[in-house]
Amino acid sequence: MTSLNRTIVVGGGAAGVFAAITSKEVNPEREVILLEKSNQLLSKVRISGGGRCNVTHACFEPKELIQNYPRGSKELLGPFYHFQPLDTIAWFKKQGVELKTEADGRMFPLTNSSQTIIDCLLNVAGKKGVIIHKMHRIESVKKEQELFSIDSLAANRLILATGSSTWGHEMAASFGHTIIQPVPSLFTFNVPTSPLLDLPGITLEKVILTIDNYSQKGPLLLTHWGFSGPAALKLSAFAARALYKKNYQDTLYINWIAAKNEEEVFQAVINKRFELPAKLAARLLSFSKDPRILAKKLYRDPYNIEGTTLNKQEFVTAGGVCLKEVDFKTMQSRLCPGLYFAGEILDIDGITGGFNFQNAWTTGFLAGKSTGFT
Ligand SMILES: Cc1cc2nc3c(=O)[nH]c(=O)nc-3n(C[C@H](O)[C@H](O)[C@H](O)COP(=O)(O)OP(=O)(O)OC[C@H]3O[C@@H](n4cnc5c(N)ncnc54)[C@H](O)[C@@H]3O)c2cc1C
Description:
The protein is an alpha+beta fold. The chain has two domains: 3-183 and 313-373, FAD/NAD(P)-binding domain (3-Layer(bba) Sandwich), CATH 3.50.50; 187-310, no CATH class. The protein has helices spanning 14-26, 43-51, 62-65, 73-82, 85-94, 114-128, 166-174, 230-238, 240-245, 262-270, 278-285, 291-299, 355-373; strands at 6-10, 31-35, 56-57, 99-101, 106-109, 131-133, 141-144, 147-150, 153-155, 157-160, 179-185, 187-190, 203-211, 214-222, 226-228, 249-255, 301-306, 308-310, 316-321, 326-327, 332-333, 339-341. A seven-stranded antiparallel β-sheet has the order 17-16-13-14-15-12-18. The protein has a five-stranded parallel β-sheet with strand order 6-2-1-10-22, with helices on one face. The structure holds flavin-adenine dinucleotide (FAD). Flavin-adenine dinucleotide binds at residues 10-16, 35-38, 43-44, 47-49, 53-54, 138, 161-163, 165, 167-168, 314-316, 343-344, 354-357, 360.
């Protein structure tokens, strides 16, 4: 096998493993070497979704699907016409892994165990002949004419799938790429001055949360440090950069009954036509006996955010390789021929619900397919 027919994939996460498998699937003759710095592949898959791995989301219309990506939505539209959640489901089914859909659209393996996904991917990678080098810490990467030399290995195609690691960003930058500053996404809000901290565990089905120009509707969870739940996580993703710039000090406004306007809340208050959990209602309604003042509060109730808490179920990094510099038909760098990107190394991130892995499967698929053919 000559190095002119070899792909090296750096990073053994979801994106790198899927890219390596796809490359072998489209061209079994091609040599594919996967380099992983740690002694374990797919370590984020293992801990994902609380150990259950939220593989993808039951959203099958690309135009709708892209709404779940605060960064990367425009760029992912084309790729989703090539590989979207239906393809993910079909791919795993072909390998004998059934996925199930939960009421909110999140999809998990039927076994409820991320190990099923790991075993499946590693079995297929082994069967297809992907060569895996674990504990491989790369010392140097150089490009001379059309060949990349990675330590003592050479290849004519290089896929960087190193997630949010600084090394991957530095490597991309060394090939001329712009790195959009990485900042955390998907976190919950700390509100130490909230008068509701003694009501942890209360959930509301539908509120509207607003920070600056960003608003999100959905379920909210009261916690002993502030606010969490799907609406808070979604808002944290869309406002990730704005909040970072303000050092996570900002005002969160809660529209407790997801009303369209203050008048609607006023009517609900005077006619007692709204539903709130009893303990929370007692607390909020004790604020004033004047229905106008109460309506104002229920419509736009301010809370001072002072920092954030990491969401343990799922978190990602916003930022990474600038998307304008990548061709999303192939995932090839527009600046360095032969160099490809897949997964979280790119300036793409989704909200919770399986969208981040879908980005890894889709961009991994395209990078693998393009390098397989060349
Ligand atoms: C706790 C947690 C739970 C999550 N749960 C979900 C979920 O249920 N659903 C969902 O959609 N998303 C989830 N996510 C997000 C999801 O895990 C990531 O978006 C996804 O793993 C990104 O895949 P990746 O392959 O791009 O990067 P990673 O999974 O980060 O893989 C990158 C790999 O590259 C390796 N690497 C880095 N540098 C080098 C180097 N120099 N040389 C060799 N190897 C290197 C790393 O060791 C790693 O194995 C979760 C994230 C976290 C942290």
